[in-house]
Amino acid sequence: MTPPATPAPTSTRPHALARAWTLGTRATLALVLVVVALVPVLFSTFFTSQVGLTSLWLGIAAVSLTFLSGHGGMVSLAQTALFGIAGLTVAKLSAEAGWDPWAAALAGILAATAVGLLFGAVASGSQGIYFLIITLAFAQVTYFYFAAVPTFGAHEGINGIRPPDLIGDPVQHPARMYYFLLAVSLLVFLGLRYVSRTAFGLALQGVRDDPVRMAALGYSVRLHRTLGFTLAAPVAGAAGVLSAWSNTRMSAGSISLGVAILVLTAAVIGGLNRLEGAWVGALLYTLCDTYLRGWTDRFTTWLGVVFLVIVLVSPGGVVGMLGSVGAWIRRRLPGETPAPMVPEASALPLPVSSKGAV
Amino acid sequence: MATQTAATRRSTPSFRPPVAATAAVLVGALGLLGVLWQAFEAGFGNEGNVPVFILVTLNGLTLAGLYFISASGLTLIFGLLRVTNLAHGALFLLGGYVALTLVQDSGMSWAVAALVAMVATGGVGLVMHQLFLRWNQGQDLRQALITIAVSLILADQMLAYFGATPTAIVPPEFLAQPLPLGVYDLSYPTFRIAILVAAIVVGLLFWLVYQRTRVGMVVRAGVDDTQMTSALGVNVQLVFAGAFFVGSALAGLGGVFAGTSLSLAPGVDQSFLVSALVVVIVGGMGSLGGAALGALLLGLVDQYSSAYLPAEYANLSALLTFVLLAVILAVRPTGLFGKAS
């Protein structure tokens, strides 16, 4: 169908329509970013705190999974466990032991990282579906632990968590919390993107695609998986801290299996192949959660249907779908030289089928 | 399937002392000793702790039977299709609710209701396989995500139709009376004994079909090498569909038993899914004997730990099953009877 491939650089002047399309998409993206930056100004306090704060911290939690899944081939259900460890540590230390919120946050994130190292070291031996199930077990262990231990408030949890004075009261005046969350999101995104381009990140992706070959090349598969998992742990931990600050409360219920599946749902809806998909998925989820619930009693059913359709139709999630639609339109624009085709990922970035060589 | 890649395994041929395995066995033995000490230290008289021990053991065994019935379906599906059916818990609960409705509202007898529930859950599982999973064969993570989505939908729909109040199915009349055990004047719910018997029957049937029939032969061949089996003229898709039906029907049967001896409520699906997964992983995915052993371990550890742990730790008993899982996986990453393909 496509004419014999012409070398891309020959056409130095793309057609006006193609140019307009490029400008249009970029302008839309810029507009979206401006709107995101101005949410506390443009929207009500309710929207900022209910949709803005929630989708940002949920996005950070989801991106730790997206990173693991997309770059490491590890679909983990234990991210909410790490999330809860950090969040409940912060709650305990700042609300009950009277620590400075920053020090408590640091302690919480360090605790999550340490536990992440432990989880990673045990789970890194497994792949694919085994990994999913082992991390599910970790999530359950953590949940049962926090639900049973009175130190952390058991099922009632800990209330009255105060964020640092710099942020102020997140319930009445969510704007500062929003900008803080936005800044952390940006840092996390850039940080994870940077990591994925380092030698370590590339090796991790190699391990995702072909562990046997990477092992033959002399890379320690287990070490890379463990370190990758440990690297995602402080991200999940930070999300836990930020969630505790945004909601001013945290309990064992915040990390139940349902929540672990919710984070997975958000990440899958957004797209597991791209880091930004995590926030897109989280935003979509939060929007539906906030507004659809009034409209339908069977919110979870619809969520499940959307999840199912996304997994069946577009394994790259909403972000992947937008990307393919954009590429499809671009290819049909007159005068556009066919871009060097990147083979589309036909499936989720699963490491190896269990029928593979390993 | 192996946790280490073939290459890493080959690169470390040196002998490693089985430290972890020894430690695990020692911890297990210590735990068992602790239980036995508490059970028998006060002697065998009526005032001693032996009657309680017998009841707790029976509880553990019947729970193990329940776990085995549902886990056997999961392990059958995994062993043959390599699909981790994370909707197994939802099918389990669905089976219970279908039987509940039939017994309560239509006045159907328990056994007929159980049979209908099995066919219904088997049918739902079969439809799910044919519609969503069949054309994604081999993409195991994608299939797992699909089954998660289906379980979300099923669980929410069950919440809509059956409500959130825990309800139980009335057991059949001839099993409703407690059964005298003949020792220490103890009696035990007959229905729970029936669960144990049913679990043994399911296990025996499985074994007979596996080892003695042509269908079993085809299934075993399919577990070992699907492509070769298909090349030899077996309609593998038909075998897959059958396995999915039977596996899902067993989930439903487990749900009927659980709904009769325990109760049905939202959330039961998740807790039984997790238990069944632990059982199957401990035993080794795809291994029926492993599932039996895993169910036995999980049921007994669960009951002994909640009965015999010191009171201040008793609420940690739920943790112990997962510690069991972590220890076993650290020692044998493919489970007790799992084999690396």
List the helices and strands and how they pair.
The complex is a heterodimer of chains A (358) and B (341).
Chain A: H1 16-37, H2 39-42, H3 45-72, H4 79-96, H5 101-123, H6 128-148, E1 158-159, H7 174-197, H8 199-209, H9 211-216, H10 221-247, E2 249-250, H11 257-270, H12 277-291, H13 299-313, H14 317-332
Antiparallel strand pairs in A: 1-2
Chain B: H1 6-11, H2 19-40, H3 50-81, H4 88-105, H5 110-133, H6 140-162, E1 178-180, E2 187-189, H7 190-212, H8 214-224, H9 226-231, H10 236-261, H11 268-283, H12 288-308, H13 317-331
Antiparallel strand pairs in B: 1-2
Helix pairs in contact in B: 3-7, 3-10, 3-11, 3-12, 4-5, 4-6, 4-10, 4-11, 5-10, 7-8, 11-12, 12-13
What does this structure look like?
The complex is a heterodimer of chains A (about 350) and B (about 350). Chain A has helices at about 15-35, 40, 45-70, 80-95, 100-125, 130-150, 175-195, 200-210, 210-215, 220-245, 255-270, 275-290, 300-315, 315-330; strands at about 160, 250. With about 350 residues, chain A is mostly helical. Chain A has 14 helices and two strands; from the N terminus they run ααααααβααααβαααα. In chain A, strands 1-2 form a two-stranded antiparallel sheet. In chain A, helix 3 packs across helix 12 (about 275-290). The model of chain A is unreliable at about 350-358 (pLDDT under 50). The longest helix of chain A is centred in the first third of the chain and has 28 residues, at about 45-70. In chain B, strands 1-2 form a two-stranded antiparallel ribbon. Chain B is an all-alpha fold and about 350 residues long. In chain B, helix 3 (about 50-80) runs parallel beside helix 7, helix 4 (about 90-105) crosses helix 10 (about 235-260) and helix 5 packs across helix 10 (about 235-260). Chain B is built from 13 helices and two strands, in the order H-H-H-H-H-H-E-E-H-H-H-H-H-H-H. Chain B starts with 5 loop residues before the first helix and ends in a 10-residue tail after the last helix. Chain B has one domain (about 55-330): ABC transporter involved in vitamin B12 uptake, BtuC, CATH 1.10.3470. The chains are: A mainly alpha (about 350), B mainly alpha (about 350). At the A-B interface, helix 6, helix 9, helix 11 and helix 13 of A face helix 1, helix 6, helix 11 and helix 13 of B.
